[in-house]
Amino acid sequence: MDVRQGMHSAHAKTLTTEELRREFLIEQIFVPGKVTMTYSHIDRIVVGGVCPTGKPLVIEAGKEFGVDYLLERRELGTINIGGPGTVSIDGKDYDLATEDGLYIPMGTKNLSFRSKDAAKPAKFYFACTPAHTAYPVVKINIADASPEKLGKPETGNVRTIYKYLHPAVLKTCQLSMGLTKLEPGSMWNTMPCHTHERRMEVYFYFNMPEDAVVFHMMGEPTETRHLIMRNEQAAISPSWSIHSGVGSQAYTFIWAMCGENQVFHDMDHVPMTTLK
Question: What domains can you pick out in the chain, each with its CATH number?
Answer without folding.
Answer: 2-269 (2.60.120.10)
